[in-house]
Hints:
Structural class: mainly beta
Order of helices and strands: HEEEEEEEEEEEE
Oligomer: single chain
Strand order of the largest sheet: 1-2-5-4-3-12
Low-confidence stretches: 1-5, 177-206
CATH class of the largest domain: Mainly Beta
Organism: marine sediment metagenome
Radius of gyration: 17 Å
Pfam family, one: MreC
Number of domains: 2
CATH superfamily of the largest domain: Rod shape-determining protein MreC, domain 1
Shape: elongated
GO cellular component, one term: plasma membrane
Mean pLDDT: 80
CATH architecture of the largest domain: Beta Barrel
Keywords: Cell shape
CATH topology of the largest domain: Thrombin, subunit H
Strand content: 25-35%
Protein name: Cell shape-determining protein MreC
Amino acid sequence: MQLENAELKKRILRDTTELKTTKYKLLRTQIIGRDPSNINGYLYIDTGQRQKLHVNQPAIAVNGLVGKIKYVGFNYSIVETIENKGFTVSAIDVNTGIHGIVKNKGNLIFDFIKINDAINIGDAVYTSGMSEIFPEGIFIGRVKKIERGDDLFFKPVYITPGVQINRLTHVYIISGSTITANNEYKEQYNYKEQSDTELFVPGSGR
């Protein structure tokens, strides 16, 4: 038990060290419950109105995007995760610069990818920043499967998420920054390919 506790403390320290250099303020929160009818779709965290949280604040982990706050109570909040059916986020394939929307349709799909777009297995998909909720540059996952499908214009592209929701014990809430919609992709923004154990947020200097 002592060995397990020591390993847990080491992991928490590593996670905090990796995240604290981002340009956004990150509030570390503990997961205190899960929705029994949708165990990975919604997480209950131990912070709320008392900590000035609000609906739609992004939730992240070291390995990438977790979701967004759906409801805020006085001393707890509910996070809707990327594993909840209907969850959507604007995204970009950083290997090719191709934009789309990541949607959970029972599976995580990189949607609106044209049939002739050069998406490849293993490509890294990040938030694009073309949203009033999510800043650009948060790792979402990697392309795991590409199908032709029946659509004449678009092809289904399946994503493996970077974060394993069922293994999380805590999440970080992004705050302290006004997140506004980007009307165009910033070419000067230098996307770097990250390993699956890293989180990249603009301004972190990493």
